[in-house]
Design brief:
The complex is a heterodimer. Chain A has a single domain, classed as 2-Layer Sandwich (Alpha-Beta Plaits), CATH 3.30.70.20. Chain A has 8 helices and 9 strands. Chain A has helices spanning 24-32, 82-86, 113-117, 159-171, 185-189, 206-212, 236-244, 247-250; strands spanning 10-15, 51-57, 67-73, 124-125, 152-153, 195-199, 216-217, 229-232, 252-253. In chain A, the strands form 3 sheets. Chain A has a 4-stranded mixed sheet with strand order 6-1-8-7. The longest helix of chain A has 13 residues, at 159-171. Chain A starts with 9 loop residues before the first strand and ends with a strand. Residues 1-6 and 249-255 of chain A have low confidence and may be disordered. Among the domains of chain B are: 1-36; 108-199, no CATH class. Helix content of chain B is 45%, strand content 4%. Chain B contains 10 helices and 2 strands, in the order αβααααααβααα. Chain B is globular, with a radius of gyration of 22 Å. The termini of chain B are far apart. Classes of the chains: A alpha+beta, B mainly alpha. At the A-B interface, helix 4 of A face helix 6 and helix 10 of B.
């Protein structure tokens, strides 16, 4: 897919030890990206969210018990991106200039092959027509198109914000945006500052420094997908669980 | 004998070709697109003439955030047309039906793109220095507003698909399809990934 060397590599570092599982990132993300509300009583796995906070425990009795919260969104895999390879519609691509993995709903035919291929369960299917509770329509973001029933959606690093930043930069005559002009909604919303977003290719950025640190790791690293989301923790059991075993079988999700 | 047969064959081939071309280039598009008149007559020539002395960006300007204002609101028209200037039918209609009740004019936009297309005018006009006419043609020099040709099935304007089916026209406006955007982006070496233009 990649034609040229990426100029930018947008990525994220999430500090698990700072995350208390409040779910503010999930709310902020849904509001920013016009994620619709599924009907009441829907099965948990049919819900829509671009970032899901998983809670994992070390399965020990008190006083040794411990719980960790892992916000998991699309990991924006940099190598052999699993969803790209399986899509029969070419509805997914990796932007060669910034590394963001896209999902184009208008091309998606809803086969959900990508959801099967994604090792992180970061993709969600629209089982219903998009709907919002009455009176909340004015909260919709005009910079993001809502998805229709029958297509897959996922995190795209708040690309509507990237567009807006580019437009503002162009109005000042600049073709490139400054690092502080583009932030994701989840990083902004986190009350504990657990999420750091930025350009991993820029060695001086905070996100690159944190990702290169000794406490950082990637989910299911052994698969070789090279996710651009890094996690930080000082707790050994969290690291072991997250890097070796599939999340869904060990963890329980917030629904 | 054989020669006559061959001539007949060629004749029928040519007749068939002409019929197919007329059907494909004229009859089908004519049936596919419905023609809708604009709510009000408007002359760009009169407004940009020396008498009125307006510039293009008096109405079609960029906002401070870089967005494109598009067609101006009625508030811009009120500046000059609070009372009728002259006695033309359209002028009286403007004042009576729109300005006095404070209603916006429901203009039909020839270049309206689907909602999922992100087109920042500012990047194209200011950074790439593409003139408005390259996409919109000589719309700024027209005396009347042509009717909007709207696709009966999709609701999109024919300007998106383009008026030139043969591909031999060399003057703008060209079509505004995704392939047109991609062609130009690749030629200039700018981002051509899905998310570059889709929101």
């Amino acid at each position: 897919m990649t034609k040229t060397t990426p100029k930018k590599r947008y990525g994220m570092v999430i500090d698990i030890d700072r995350c208390d599982g409040c779910g503010a990132c999930m709310v902020a993300c849904s509001l920013e990206n016009n994620v619709s509300v599924v009907p009441a009583g829907a099965a948990p796995h049919r819900g829509l969210t671009w970032i899901r906070v998983y809670s994992v425990t070390n399965k020990k009795e008190y006083p040794d018990s411990d719980t960790a919260y892992l916000p998991v969104s699309c990991q924006h895999c940099g190598n052999e991106t699993p969803c790209v390879g399986v899509c029969p519609q070419s509805a997914v691509d990796v932007d060669p200039k910034n590394g963001i993995v896209s999902q184009i709903p208008e091309r998606c035919m809803g086969c959900r092959y990508c959801m099967v291929a994604c090792p992180y369960h970061a993709r969600y299917f629209n089982w219903w027509d998009p709907e919002w509770p009455e009176g909340t329509e004015h909260l919709l973001n005009p910079g993001v198109t809502p998805r229709m029933r029958g297509v897959v959606e996922k995190c795209n690093f708040c690309h509507g914000r990237h567009h807006a930043a580019q437009e503002r930069a162009a109005s000042e005559g600049r073709s490139e945006i400054e690092p502080n002009e583009y932030q994701t909604a989840c990083a902004e919303a986190c009350p504990n500052g657990a999420i750091t977003f930025g350009d991993l290719a820029d060695k001086n950025s905070e996100v690159a420094k944190l990702a290169a640190g000794p406490e950082s790791f990637q989910l299911l690293k052994s698969l070789g997908t090279e996710p651009k989301i890094y996690y930080l923790t000082q707790r050994g059991w969290v690291r072991d669980m997250a890097t070796r075993t599939p999340l869904i079988s060990k963890g329980q999700s917030h629904d | 004998m054989i020669l006559t047969q061959r001539r007949t064959t060629i004749l029928f081939f040519i007749i068939g070709l002409v019929v197919a071309m007329l059907a494909g280039w004229i009859a089908v598009p004519a049936a596919l697109y419905e023609s809708i008149e604009q709510p009000l007559g408007f002359s760009h020539v009169v407004h940009t003439s020396d008498d009125a002395g307006m510039e293009c960006d008096d109405c079609h300007h960029l906002t401070s955030e870089g967005g494109f204002a598009g067609i101006p609101k009625i508030a811009v028209c009120v500046d000059c047309h609070e009372e009728a200037i002259g006695t033309s039918v359209d002028e009286l209609k403007l004042v009576e039906e729109y300005i006095k009740p404070g209603r916006e004019i429901p203009w039909l936009v020839y270049a309206r793109q689907p909602d999922n297309a992100f087109f920042p005018h500012v990047r194209h006009t200011r950074l790439a220095k593409i003139p408005c006419e390259q996409c919109h043609g000589d719309h700024g020099q027209t005396e009347t507003l042509r009717p909007l040709k709207r696709n009966r099935f999709t609701g999109y304007s024919r300007d998106i698909w383009g008026n030139d089916f043969s591909g031999i026209t060399t003057s703008p406006p060209f079509s505004m399809k995704m392939s047109d955007c991609v062609d130009c982006h690749r030629k200039r070496g700018v981002r051509d990934s899905c998310l570059a233009c889709h929101k």
